[in-house]
Amino acid sequence: MQEENQNNHDNKNSLKPFQFVESTTLPVPTSAVDARHEYPYGRTAQQADGRQMHLRDYWRIIRRRLWVPISVVFIAVTLMTVYMLRSPSIYEGKTTIQIDNEQKNSFTLKELRIGADDTLYINTQLKNLLNPNIAYQVARTLDLEHNPNFQPKRRRFADVADSRPRTLQVTSGRSEEQADMDRLADYIEELMDVIEIGRLRDTRLVEIKYRHKDRELAKKITDTWGDVFIKNDLETRRASSRDSEEFLKYRISQVTLELRTAEEKLLNYRRNNEVIDFGEKESTVIARLSGLNTALLEAENERKSLEGIYQQAQAADPATIPDVQRDEYIRDLNKRLTELKQARSNLIVVYTPEWPEVKKVDQQIAQVEGELRAAQQRIIGGISNRYHAALQREESIRKALNEQKGETLKSNEGAIQAKILQQDVETNRRLLDNLLQSQKELEVNTASLSLTNNIRVTHYSAMPRIPVAPHRVQNVLLAFVISLVAGLGLAIFLDYLNNKIESVEDIDRYLALPALGVIPVFSGSKGRKLLAGSQNGSKELAPPGVSSGQVILTQVESTSSLAESYRQLRTAVLLSSAEHAPRTILVTSSQPTEGKTTTSVNLAISLAQTGSSVLLVDADLRRPRAHKIFNLKNTRGSCNYLAGDSDLASLIQTALPNLYVLPAGPLPPNPAELLGSQRMRQMVETLTQNFDYVVIDSPPVASFADGLILSSLVEGVIIVVKAGITSREMAQRTKANLQAVGARVLGVVVNHIKLQPHDYYYYSTYYSRYYYNQDSEEAGDGREPVRRREKEAEEEMTAEV
Q1: What is the predicted pLDDT for the residue at 341?
Q2: Sign of the torsion formed by the C-alpha atoms of 199, 201, 205 and 208
Q3: How are strands ordered across the β-sheet holding 205-212?
Q4: For residues 692-727, b (16+ Cβ closer than 10 Å) or e, as one string?
Q5: What does the alpha-carbon distance between residue 699 and residue 710 come to, in Å, rounded to a whole number?
Q6: Are 95 and 221 contacting, i.e. CB atoms less than 8 angstroms apart?
Q7: Which of 68, 242, 246, 741 registers the highest number of CB atoms within 10 A of its CB?
Q8: Does 544 sit behind a cis peptide bond, omega within 30 degrees of 0 on the bond before it?
Q9: Is there a contact between 61 and 492 (Cβ–Cβ < 8 Å)?
Q10: HEC per residue, 456-474
Q11: Phi and psi at residue 669, in whole multiples of 5°?
Q12: Which of 541-555, 628-642, 783-797 has the lowest mean pLDDT?
């Protein structure tokens, strides 16, 4: 088979380059027979463009822009780390107090009555713990105003003029303490903002927490807060006892005077009327008068007692009335109201006041408050009714007594009057005894306050050692996670905004065409070596006319990734057709500077390395560049032949072994008319009969119609796109234009792609280099066995095609 292939090449070389067989019949291009191109993957461009995205597609997107999430994560983590390192450590002081059952003010000499478990009382004390007056006393006790470690936010950012000491001004109607609280308002607000009060679940223990960067100050504030609260509670209870004691003293002195007055009246009446004894038996009138008098005294005492309660109910807060506080129904309502307010506080942390659940709780709170007000009004109304009933009863008894007195005076005015005075004396004496008994009980209650306090500190705060904030490691990890997610999303978003063709996946997805080759960005060293060698293995330098911006295969090593890329492109082109490899190939692009000329030159060189005769036709009659790459003359070329010069063989120049170039020649004024002429079709047929492969370099399709005209004369068209430059829309429009004129698009070459270590092409390059290195080691210093083996493999592949 190798011998036949060698003979075949010898026969072809016998025709080159001057023994031309002129064609007299015009060929019918394959594209004209079947203008419809079957996509290699069995789907149309629309189907390929609309396919679903898989996780691996997102992974490719992220992998291609891996610098985006890495940059975002690096910046975010660095900023958070710097912020955490600059943030001061926060320490927490924690003081625990215990609130026992509320002690009632009602005492007897025999027993000390303790109230039951009162949740309302504990909740009230929790609210009292957050009283600004306590914060004021803590600030005064610890002298926070002159403590440099305690700086309120307002004072911290205040102007110099505002930070000067302010003089205390006491105006009329304003106490000195209130003015002092106004002066320390910033410190009070700072304490109230940071202090935390919380009850331990299912216990009577309450924790007081305060956080500050000074650990000693955090401990002092919580301890002082608990001590001030206990002191205020004791003072409030003692103040209430003092008020009751003063009231009892006043009533005792008043009743004592009334008793003395009643005794003197009785004594004087007996002396003046000579009434000594009333006897054991009294008449019915006297007994009735005595009963009315007793009833009147009881009614007066009841009315006076109810009058005090009634006046208190009219003036004081309904919640402070003893009858209201003792009512079980009101206690239940207060308990329900506390629970509902606590539930609303929990909901408002997560939701807004407009949330349906919050509104529902607000309605329930309003309903319970309405029921509570109704119940209080009911009790107040009952007190009012009892007072008015007692007043009416007193008036009715007084009226009956007055009537009975008139009747009694007729019978025994002296005896009855003495009896009335006696009753006044006894009533006042019993009332005085009751008041003295209540005074003794109150003295016992006041003395017990200092011995049985129901609020006490169970645990003072220890000196904090470990800071509770900021959570540096947690915040840095959180910044890492959030920035990683944001970086991945940004990478996907940037890919969504980018409409450039970046990879082979984009060719498959948006163009539904096979990727014939991937040409990486070349980054060779200064000592570039020739890939193409002579038959005996000698190396040649690149033609002197090659531009520094052009990279052709004769300038790089055969083991380089760039050389391997063009070998893969050559193989893909030779295997692009089922029956035989396309002999006439048009290389075009969408727009200039996409590398179509470099691709056509390197493809021609790669095909020539197989031993086949290859002709490179520079059909870019507007900006020809092939002659510059090979440092050839451009005085005569294809334009001369198309204009009437029939000697085509004299226009062809030799560039490299097995590689010939047909330059463009002088630039014509009407390139499209020359390329669309019958003579151009005849020239392509003549060149096809005399060369194994004809590679035609044409202008960009999107700019000129030259490429579309030439695409109908060749067996295959290769579209060159530049990674990161060519837009998807431009490439799709180029493909559509070519297919519209019946061109057979072989595939796409992705040029100037930046390969990463994770790209699939990297591995093929790695194994290619590994293969060549292994062969080099086996061959020693010379590479001739390697080149010979490569040439034999390529000849076998060409023969099979």
Answers
A1: 82
A2: negative
A3: 196-199, 205-212, 91-99, 455-459
A4: bbbbbbbbbbbebebbbbbbbbbbbbbbbbbbebbb
A5: 10
A6: no
A7: 68
A8: no
A9: yes
A10: EEEECCCCCCCCCECCHHH
A11: -80, -20
A12: 783-797
Q: Residue 677 — φ and ψ, nearest 5°?
A: -80, 165
Residue 665 falls in which region: left (phi positive, over 0), alpha (psi -120 to 50) or beta? left
For residue 160, give the 3-state DSSP assignment: coil
Q: The dihedral of CA 786, 789, 791, 793: what is its sign? A: negative
Give me the DSSP letters along 694-762. Answer: EEEE---TTT-SHHHHHHTTSSEEEEEEETTTSBHHHHHHHHHHHHHTT--EEEEEEEEE---TTSHHH
Indicate if the pLDDT at residue 406 is higher than 80. Answer: no
Cα–Cα distances in angstroms (integers) from residue 111 to residues 38, 101, 106, 371, 591, in the given order: 107, 16, 10, 36, 107
H helices within 50-158, ranges in order?
Answer: 55-64, 67-86, 119-128, 132-142, 153-156
- Our measurement of the distance from residue 625's CA atom to the centroid of its chain's CA atoms, rounded to an integer in Å, reads 56
∠ CA 224-227-230 to the nearest 5 degrees?
Answer: 150
Question: How many residues in total does the chain contain?
Answer: 801
Own/partner pairs for 384-393, CB < 8 Å, 24+ apart? Answer: 384/310, 384/313, 386/306, 387/303, 387/306, 387/307, 387/309, 387/310, 390/299, 390/302, 390/303, 390/306, 391/303, 393/299, 393/302, 393/303
Q: How far apart are CA 562 and CA 567, in angstroms?
A: 9
Sign of CA dihedral 242, 247, 250, 251: negative
d(CA 563, CA 558): 6
H/E run at residue 367: helix 356-449
Helix then strand then coil, % of the chain, to nearest 5: 60, 10, 30
Return the number of other C-beta atoms located less than 10 Å from residue 149's C-beta.
Answer: 10
CB distance 495 to 715 below 8 Å: no
Neighbours of 477 (CB within 10 A): 13
Distance CA 756, CA 64 (A): 8
Q: Residue 350: in which H helix or E strand, if any?
A: helix 328-350
Q: How many CA atoms lie within 13 A of 457 on its CB side?
A: 16
Distance in angstroms (rounded) separating the CA atoms of residues 167 and 349: 41
Site of tokens 């009714």: 385
At residue 542, φ and ψ (nearest 5 deg) are -65, 150
Lowest mean pLDDT among 173-187, 313-327, 364-378, 676-690: 313-327
Report the C-alpha gap between 172 and 179 in whole angstroms. 11
**Range of weakest confidence among 25-39, 361-375, 513-527:** 25-39
Residues 6+ apart with CB under 8 A from 176: 168, 170
> What distances in angstroms separate CA 379 from CA 120, 310, 336, 338, 710, one per listed residue?
19, 11, 19, 21, 107
Among residues 593, 518, 446, 535, the alpha carbon closest in space to that of 753 is found at 518
Residue 368 corresponds to which tokens in the numbers above? 């319970």
- The CA-based diameter of the chain, rounded to the nearest angstrom, is 179
CB 634 within 8 A of CB 624: yes
State mean pLDDT over 440-446. 68
Tokens found for residue 761: 């092409």
Q: Using an 8 Å Cβ cutoff, are 311 and 247 in contact?
A: no
DSSP assignment of 120-140, as one string?
HHHHHHHHHTT-HHHHHHHHH
Cα–Cα distance, 467 to 211 (Å, whole number): 9
- Let me know: does 543 contact 631? Beta carbons within 8 Å: yes
Q: Would you call 25 helix, strand, or coil by DSSP?
A: coil
Instruction: Give the residue with greater pLDDT, 303 vs 210.
Output: 210
Q: Which two tokens stand for residue 659?
A: 């590689």
